[in-house]
Amino acid sequence: MTPDQLRALVRTIPDHPKPGIMFRDVTTLLLDPEGLAAAADALAATVTDKPDLIAAIDARGFIVGTALALRLGCGLLLVRKDGKLPGETIAEDYALEYGTDRLAMHVDACTPGARVLITDDLLATGGTALAAARLIRRAGGLVTGARFFIDLPDLGGGAKLRAEGIEPISLMDFAGD
């Protein structure tokens, strides 16, 4: 599938979750088996240096992360909303486009020196991905980059990740609206 065909599978929902927001809904891409496979294959093809772990961010990032982990032969590290993991965790607060939240991961999920690629469905302001990176680095892991199906470049998340030494790569962007 071409990038334009993948873009066409992403639904736009105006004024969600508040007026003026154009919500990019990846669930319509996930519903299409050919589109999902093509997106996962295309994203995996951008990884030139195999990481040890794929860090998947709660919740839609779990789908992206699982697909990449399977294609690349890596382990899957779950970065969840605080309070969702059963074992001992470390946590990070972060700012969202619409407020604040907190992410956590198991303290033993990432060994020191592990090479970790961060994944999520969408990059907006970068707050969630940066919180995941801080968690990984606190555990002694090395963040090798970040991968997303969608980037919203006008919200500046890519620039924030690059400022922290993390190169983001996305399959498609939705700029200007």
TrEMBL record:
The keyword DNA-binding does not apply. CDD domains: PRTases_typeI. It is an enzyme of class 2 (transferase). Keywords: Cytoplasm, Glycosyltransferase, Purine salvage, Transferase. Pathway: Purine metabolism; AMP biosynthesis via salvage pathway; AMP from adenine: step 1/1. It comes from the Bacteria. Pfam families: Pribosyltran. It catalyses: AMP + diphosphate = 5-phospho-alpha-D-ribose 1-diphosphate + adenine. Its EC number is 2.4.2.7. SUPFAM superfamilies: PRTase-like (SSF53271). Residues 33-141 form the Phosphoribosyltransferase domain. It is found in: Cytoplasm. Its main location: cytoplasm. One of its GO terms (molecular function) is glycosyltransferase activity. Belongs to the purine/pyrimidine phosphoribosyltransferase family. Homodimer. Catalyzes a salvage reaction resulting in the formation of AMP, that is energically less costly than de novo synthesis. This is Adenine phosphoribosyltransferase. The lineage of its organism: Bacteria, Pseudomonadati, Pseudomonadota, Alphaproteobacteria, Sphingomonadales.
